[in-house]
Design brief:
Strand order of the largest sheet: 1-3-4
Number of domains: 2
Strand content: under 5%
Structural class: mainly alpha
Helix content: 55-70%
Order of helices and strands: EHEHEEHHEHHHHHHH
Number of helices: 11
Distance between the termini: 64 Å
Number of strands: 5
Shape: elongated
Length: about 350
């Protein structure tokens, strides 16, 4: 059954979208471009030991990865975005949600609930992906941890250090003789794993959306979709361990970072995917003065003893007397008696 939806005007919808939200998303994309596709900032210089086994794993070219980074970005965006569009289209067509949002008129245009909710949820998802990638890049540049294939692509010239390798020195000097500078740079940025943070963010975000919007009448559809997205995220991140692109700690740490960013945005940016009407009317009701006063008197009876009970009863008797405009107060000696 179609539910009646309200209609209202808004003077702040379009200005907030054009002058606040769009610039924030655009600036995050620009920052991501500067960190990912340029060498404006270099990672911190770490250290290693001669012929360290954990850093001498085989090097897998990015073109030979099971899930390249560009494919992961496409899947992390397209999968949740398409799911949100389909879900919002179904909810709008059947209007099964109580308190469904009505349409809003802004700038001479009518925006229905399907358009506004879809743009809001997908927009926050896009911003979350950019924010997750930015946080990952910043941590990678700040830590400068080496990937398992670092020594394979670095090809360090151990003759340039003053201490022989027999003494197992800790090397912090740049003695790489390898020619693939892109591979060397990628090997110096491994914690946390990009695959883990992005896939974890997308999986947690869309899972919380499904848990919030799918009605409880479907007992198996909700867990099926949630498990599918979560398993896809876990498998895509674990390929980084099996192909020696990242350490296990890089992947596990990335899972935690991506999940935290997704949960934060869900609760504080989209209010757990609730409608605006639900958020506005979900506040607690105002407290009743008489009830609060009665509870205070009740607590004082049990906490302070019999002496305070009469004082609390006197306080309670003042409220109805004031309302009645001179009537007999409850608890007074004349209560319950007729006129003399």
């Amino acid at each position: 059954m179609m539910m009646k939806m309200t209609h209202k005007d808004s003077l702040t919808l379009l200005p907030c979208f054009y002058f606040v939200e769009l610039p924030i998303v655009a600036s995050s994309m620009l920052s991501l471009y500067l960190l990912e596709l340029t060498q404006l900032l270099q990672p911190a210089q770490g250290g290693y030991r001669c012929h360290q086994a954990s850093l001498s794993m085989p090097y897998v070219d990015p073109a030979e990865e099971l899930i390249p980074l560009l494919m992961l970005l496409s899947l992390a965006f397209a999968g949740p975005a398409a799911t949100i569009m389909v879900g919002e289209g179904l909810l709008y067509s059947v209007s099964v949600r109580p308190g469904a949002e009505g349409s809003i008129t802004a700038g001479g245009c009518n925006f229905n609930s399907f358009l506004r909710r879809t743009v809001r949820f997908v927009g926050v998802h896009v911003f979350g992906l950019c924010a997750t990638a930015l946080v990952t890049d910043v941590i990678q540049l700040a830590t400068g941890y080496y990937a398992p294939f670092f020594l394979t692509v670095c090809k360090p010239n151990y003759t340039l250090i003053s201490v022989p390798c027999d003494l197992n020195p800790f090397i912090t000097k740049d003695i790489c003789s390898g020619h693939d500078q892109q591979a060397i740079l990628a090997a110096r940025k491994t914690f946390p794993s990009h695959h883990a943070t992005l896939s974890s963010f997308a999986a947690v975000y869309i899972s919380m959306y499904l848990n919030s919007t799918i009605p409880d009448c479907t007992k198996l559809l909700k867990p099926l979709l949630v498990f599918a997205f979560c398993m896809a995220a876990v498998l895509s991140a674990l390929t980084q361990i099996t192909q020696y692109r990242s350490h296990a700690a890089d992947v596990y740490g990335g899972f935690l970072i991506g999940a935290f960013i997704a949960a934060y945005l869900v609760f504080h940016a989209v209010a757990n995917f609730k409608s605006i009407e639900d958020v506005v009317h979900s506040g607690p009701p105002p407290p009743d003065a008489l009830r609060a006063l009665a509870e205070r008197g009740h607590d004082s009876v049990y906490n302070k003893g019999p002496a305070s009970a009469s004082e609390s009863n006197d306080e309670i008797s003042v409220v109805p007397a004031a309302r009645g405009g001179g009537g007999v107060a409850w608890g007074s000696p004349c209560a319950g008696r007729g006129p003399p």
